[in-house]
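Budget justification note: compute hours in this period were largely spent on complex prediction jobs such as the one shown. Inputs:
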Amino acid sequence: MREAVVEAVLDLAAIVPPGRVLSYGDVAELLDVGGPRLVGRIMSLHGDAAPWWRIIRANGSLPDELMERAVVHYRREGTPLAAPAAGPAKVRMAQARWMPQEEEFAAIERLRRKVSEATDGMGA
DNA sequence: AGGATGACATTAC
DNA sequence: GGTAATGCCATCC
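Corresponding output:
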């Protein structure tokens, strides 16, 4: 069910440590869901129910309006930002990209499995 | 069924 | 270091 996916995505966003980020694609891969676009869609609908600024584009950017709001959080959390030549700032993915440790991986694995059994075992 | 859309990703230039 | 073209997956008309 989509709800299960939504839950998992929001849940994952919630366990991303402050100062760190994940790309939409990372989330999609960690949870083994359709793809980046689906994750983006979910965030657009339910992003306000989670630390949405920790789920960003693979190149460390976000839509301009969102980035304006996100930068506030980044400064507060100490997220590595790139010096913007022009326009809104960008996150340094190389530095900020979250690498889950084994224990955290286990939690993610649980989420992924939950989604899997929800999306898989339907209809039949 | 066919086509357009979206908080995207990758590759090529 | 950019922008442009293609590919992606799920949804909605």
